[in-house]
Amino acid sequence: MLCAHSCQSRAQYSRTRLLDECLAVITIRCICNVKCYTCCIVWRCSMAQAIIATGKENQAQHRAALAKMLMKAFDLWNVPNEDQLALLGLALENRAALSRYRRGEPLATNRDLLERSGHLLAIHKNLRLLFPHDRDLAYRWMTARNRAFGNQTPVEVICEWGFTGLLMVRSYLDRALGS
What mean pLDDT comes out for the span 39-58? Predict the structure, then answer.
Protein backbone atom coordinates (compact mmCIF):
# COMPACT_ATOMS: atom_id res chain seq x y z
CA MET A 1 0.00 0.00 0.00
CA LEU A 2 1.33 3.46 -0.85
CA CYS A 3 1.43 6.28 1.66
CA ALA A 4 -1.61 8.52 1.46
CA HIS A 5 0.59 11.55 1.90
CA SER A 6 2.97 13.29 -0.48
CA CYS A 7 6.06 11.08 -0.17
CA GLN A 8 4.47 8.10 -2.01
CA SER A 9 6.65 5.63 -0.12
CA ARG A 10 5.30 2.33 1.11
CA ALA A 11 2.89 2.49 4.02
CA GLN A 12 2.78 -0.11 6.73
CA TYR A 13 -0.36 -1.57 8.27
CA SER A 14 -0.41 -0.78 11.97
CA ARG A 15 -3.67 -1.92 13.56
CA THR A 16 -7.44 -2.12 13.21
CA ARG A 17 -10.01 -1.16 15.79
CA LEU A 18 -13.74 -1.92 15.65
CA LEU A 19 -15.97 1.12 16.11
CA ASP A 20 -19.23 -0.80 16.01
CA GLU A 21 -20.76 -3.68 14.09
CA CYS A 22 -20.26 -1.94 10.73
CA LEU A 23 -17.25 0.33 11.04
CA ALA A 24 -13.58 -0.40 11.52
CA VAL A 25 -10.68 2.03 11.71
CA ILE A 26 -7.59 0.79 9.96
CA THR A 27 -4.47 2.67 11.02
CA ILE A 28 -1.69 2.97 8.44
CA ARG A 29 1.78 4.29 9.23
CA CYS A 30 4.19 5.58 6.61
CA ILE A 31 7.57 3.85 6.65
CA CYS A 32 9.46 7.05 5.80
CA ASN A 33 8.53 8.68 9.16
CA VAL A 34 10.00 11.97 7.92
CA LYS A 35 7.13 14.18 6.82
CA CYS A 36 4.22 11.80 7.07
CA TYR A 37 1.96 11.06 9.96
CA THR A 38 -0.32 8.20 10.81
CA CYS A 39 -3.50 8.21 8.80
CA CYS A 40 -6.72 6.36 9.50
CA ILE A 41 -9.17 4.82 7.10
CA VAL A 42 -12.74 4.31 8.26
CA TRP A 43 -14.00 1.22 6.51
CA ARG A 44 -17.68 0.30 6.32
CA CYS A 45 -17.87 -3.44 6.59
CA SER A 46 -19.67 -6.37 8.13
CA MET A 47 -18.78 -7.65 11.57
CA ALA A 48 -17.04 -10.66 10.05
CA GLN A 49 -14.96 -8.50 7.68
CA ALA A 50 -14.02 -6.15 10.51
CA ILE A 51 -12.84 -8.99 12.73
CA ILE A 52 -10.87 -10.57 9.90
CA ALA A 53 -9.22 -7.19 9.22
CA THR A 54 -8.02 -6.89 12.81
CA GLY A 55 -5.26 -9.39 12.21
CA LYS A 56 -4.75 -12.74 13.88
CA GLU A 57 -3.37 -11.31 17.10
CA ASN A 58 -6.59 -9.39 17.86
CA GLN A 59 -9.23 -11.67 16.36
CA ALA A 60 -9.67 -13.90 19.40
CA GLN A 61 -9.90 -10.87 21.68
CA HIS A 62 -12.66 -9.29 19.56
CA ARG A 63 -14.52 -12.59 19.21
CA ALA A 64 -14.39 -13.06 23.00
CA ALA A 65 -15.81 -9.56 23.51
CA LEU A 66 -18.58 -10.37 21.01
CA ALA A 67 -19.42 -13.57 22.88
CA LYS A 68 -19.66 -11.68 26.15
CA MET A 69 -21.91 -8.99 24.65
CA LEU A 70 -24.18 -11.56 23.00
CA MET A 71 -24.60 -13.59 26.18
CA LYS A 72 -25.46 -10.40 28.09
CA ALA A 73 -28.03 -9.43 25.42
CA PHE A 74 -29.57 -12.92 25.52
CA ASP A 75 -29.84 -12.67 29.32
CA LEU A 76 -31.45 -9.22 29.12
CA TRP A 77 -33.89 -10.44 26.46
CA ASN A 78 -34.65 -13.54 28.56
CA VAL A 79 -34.15 -15.87 25.58
CA PRO A 80 -34.10 -19.64 26.36
CA ASN A 81 -30.94 -21.62 25.49
CA GLU A 82 -32.59 -23.46 22.57
CA ASP A 83 -33.55 -20.14 20.99
CA GLN A 84 -30.10 -18.69 21.66
CA LEU A 85 -28.62 -21.54 19.62
CA ALA A 86 -31.11 -20.88 16.81
CA LEU A 87 -30.37 -17.13 16.85
CA LEU A 88 -26.68 -17.94 16.43
CA GLY A 89 -27.40 -20.48 13.69
CA LEU A 90 -26.06 -23.35 15.80
CA ALA A 91 -27.49 -26.86 16.08
CA LEU A 92 -29.36 -27.86 19.24
CA GLU A 93 -26.60 -30.38 19.96
CA ASN A 94 -24.14 -27.51 20.25
CA ARG A 95 -25.09 -26.47 23.80
CA ALA A 96 -21.45 -26.73 24.82
CA ALA A 97 -20.70 -23.75 22.57
CA LEU A 98 -23.07 -21.57 24.61
CA SER A 99 -21.36 -22.68 27.81
CA ARG A 100 -17.97 -21.79 26.34
CA TYR A 101 -19.21 -18.37 25.24
CA ARG A 102 -20.66 -17.75 28.71
CA ARG A 103 -17.23 -18.51 30.19
CA GLY A 104 -15.73 -15.82 27.96
CA GLU A 105 -14.23 -17.99 25.25
CA PRO A 106 -14.14 -16.42 21.76
CA LEU A 107 -16.82 -17.07 19.18
CA ALA A 108 -15.88 -19.57 16.49
CA THR A 109 -14.35 -18.11 13.33
CA ASN A 110 -17.43 -19.16 11.37
CA ARG A 111 -18.40 -16.28 9.06
CA ASP A 112 -22.14 -16.97 9.46
CA LEU A 113 -21.83 -16.84 13.25
CA LEU A 114 -19.93 -13.54 13.12
CA GLU A 115 -22.46 -12.02 10.70
CA ARG A 116 -25.35 -13.10 12.92
CA SER A 117 -23.56 -11.66 15.94
CA GLY A 118 -23.25 -8.30 14.25
CA HIS A 119 -26.94 -8.23 13.36
CA LEU A 120 -28.01 -9.33 16.85
CA LEU A 121 -25.92 -6.61 18.47
CA ALA A 122 -27.31 -4.06 16.01
CA ILE A 123 -30.83 -5.16 17.01
CA HIS A 124 -29.88 -4.67 20.66
CA LYS A 125 -28.47 -1.21 19.92
CA ASN A 126 -31.56 -0.24 17.90
CA LEU A 127 -33.86 -1.29 20.73
CA ARG A 128 -31.89 0.81 23.20
CA LEU A 129 -32.16 3.79 20.83
CA LEU A 130 -35.88 3.28 20.20
CA PHE A 131 -36.74 2.94 23.89
CA PRO A 132 -34.14 5.05 25.72
CA HIS A 133 -36.38 5.73 28.73
CA ASP A 134 -37.90 2.25 29.05
CA ARG A 135 -35.20 -0.40 29.17
CA ASP A 136 -37.69 -3.03 30.33
CA LEU A 137 -39.64 -2.56 27.10
CA ALA A 138 -36.42 -2.63 25.06
CA TYR A 139 -35.41 -5.91 26.69
CA ARG A 140 -38.91 -7.47 26.46
CA TRP A 141 -39.36 -6.53 22.79
CA MET A 142 -37.55 -9.59 21.40
CA THR A 143 -39.86 -11.99 23.25
CA ALA A 144 -43.11 -10.01 22.91
CA ARG A 145 -45.68 -10.74 20.20
CA ASN A 146 -45.68 -8.22 17.38
CA ARG A 147 -48.39 -7.66 14.74
CA ALA A 148 -45.72 -6.65 12.23
CA PHE A 149 -44.46 -10.25 12.37
CA GLY A 150 -47.84 -11.98 12.12
CA ASN A 151 -48.31 -11.97 15.90
CA GLN A 152 -45.03 -13.86 16.38
CA THR A 153 -42.18 -12.71 18.59
CA PRO A 154 -39.03 -11.47 16.85
CA VAL A 155 -37.19 -14.46 18.34
CA GLU A 156 -39.76 -16.83 16.79
CA VAL A 157 -39.37 -15.10 13.42
CA ILE A 158 -35.59 -15.55 13.52
CA CYS A 159 -35.88 -19.17 14.69
CA GLU A 160 -38.38 -19.97 11.92
CA TRP A 161 -36.77 -18.06 9.05
CA GLY A 162 -33.11 -18.30 10.03
CA PHE A 163 -30.76 -15.65 8.66
CA THR A 164 -33.59 -14.17 6.56
CA GLY A 165 -35.68 -13.72 9.71
CA LEU A 166 -32.75 -12.04 11.41
CA LEU A 167 -32.50 -9.58 8.52
CA MET A 168 -36.28 -9.01 8.66
CA VAL A 169 -36.15 -8.06 12.35
CA ARG A 170 -33.07 -5.89 11.90
CA SER A 171 -34.48 -4.03 8.89
CA TYR A 172 -37.79 -3.50 10.73
CA LEU A 173 -35.91 -1.79 13.57
CA ASP A 174 -33.66 0.13 11.15
CA ARG A 175 -36.79 1.51 9.46
CA ALA A 176 -38.34 2.36 12.84
CA LEU A 177 -35.23 4.40 13.61
CA GLY A 178 -35.33 6.04 10.20
CA SER A 179 -31.90 4.74 9.22
Answer: 50
